[in-house]
Amino acid sequence: MSYRLEATEPVDEGVRRVAGEQIERSLAELSNDDLGPHEKALAVRKRCKKVRGLIRLVRPVFDGYADENNAMRDAARSLAGLRDAAAMLNTFDDLIAGDINPNRFAPVRERLVARRDQAASANVDDALDRFRQAMEKALERSGEWVIEGEGFEALRDGITRTYGLTQLEMAQAYDIRTPEAFHEWRKRIKYDRYHTRLLADAWELAADDRYEQAKAVSDLLGRDHDLSELATFLGSSSDELTSEIKRRQTDLRLRAHGLGKQLYTDTPEEHTRRVERLWTDWYTGPDA
C-alpha cells in the first residue's frame, strides 16, 4: 500500500500500518544488490524521514513519539556521511558544468572524489548492518504503538503544529538569512508535505497540487543547503566558486520564497479547519 491513511481504517491502525510498510521497505532496499552504498543510504534515510513525518502527525497523542523520533533520527544520521559526500561532489559538478575550462578546478574535484571514496570505504558494511538492526527493532516496536486518539482528533494538533512551525520557520529564514535557518525551514516543509501525502485521499485532486508545490520549495532549499555545505568545504580557497555559489543561492531563495508565500497563506487554524472539512467528507472508519 502507499504512504497514506485509508478511509476505512482506524487512525491508530493506519499509523502502525504505514510505519511498518516504510520500515519493511527500508530493509528491502538494504538487501537490494542493484543499489550501491550511496543509493542505499539515500533510499533508507528517506524512509526514516517518512516515518518521522508520520509520527509528527499524531505527536500530541503518541506517548512514544520522542523515543521513536530519536531512534529514526539517529539511524538516518548514522548514514549521513555517505549521502553528504556524494551530494557534495554532485553539487560541485553542477556548479562548474557551464565553465569554459572546468579542468582548472580539477584539484578541488580530486579532493571531493577522495572525500566521497573515503566515506564509502569507512566501514560501510558495518554502518549498513547497524542500520538494519535498528530498523528490525523499530519494526517490532511499531506494531505495539499506542495512539491515544480517534478520528480527526488524533490528527488535529499535529496538523496545526506542523503547518504553524513551517510558517514560522519561513519567516525566520528570510529574517536572519542564515544557511541553518533555511535548512530548518526545509525540514518543516518536508513534514508538512508528508502530511499532505498521508491525507492525499481526503484532499483528492488538491493534494497533488499542494504536494508538488511543497516538493518544489523543498527541492530548491535542498539545493541551497548543498551549496552551503560546499561553500563551507571550499572555505577561502576559491573566491570565484564562492561568488557563483552566492549568486545561485540568492536565486534559489527568491524562488522558494515566492512559492512558499503562495503555499502558506492561511493561518494554522484555517488550514486545519480546511483539512477537517475534507476529512469529514471522506473518512468512513469506525471512529468517524
Q: How would you describe this structure to a colleague?
A:
The protein has 2 domains: 1-149, no CATH class; 151-288. The longest helix has 30 residues, at 205-234. The mean pLDDT is 93. The protein is built from 12 helices and no strands. α8 (179-198) packs antiparallel against α10 (205-234). It has helices spanning 11-30, 37-57, 65-77, 80-96, 106-121, 124-142, 156-176, 179-198, 200-203, 205-234, 239-263, 268-282. With 288 residues, the protein is mainly α. The radius of gyration is 20 Å and the shape is globular. The chain starts with 10 loop residues before the first helix and ends in a 6-residue tail after the last helix. Helix content is 77%, strand content 0%.
Q: Can you tag this structure with a few keywords?
A:
288 residues, 2 domains
Quick structural overview:
By secondary structure, this protein is mainly alpha-helical. It has 12 helices and no strands. α2 (37-57) runs antiparallel to α3, α3 packs antiparallel against α6 and α4 crosses α10 (205-234).
Topology:
Blueprint: H1 11-30, H2 37-57, H3 65-77, H4 80-96, H5 106-121, H6 124-142, H7 156-176, H8 179-198, H9 200-203, H10 205-234, H11 239-263, H12 268-282
Helix pairs in contact: 1-2, 1-6, 2-3, 2-4, 2-8, 3-6, 4-5, 4-10, 7-8, 7-12, 8-10, 10-11
Number of helical elements: 12
- What is the number of strand segments? 0
Identify the overall geometry: globular
Indicate the mean pLDDT.
93
The biggest sheet amounts to: none
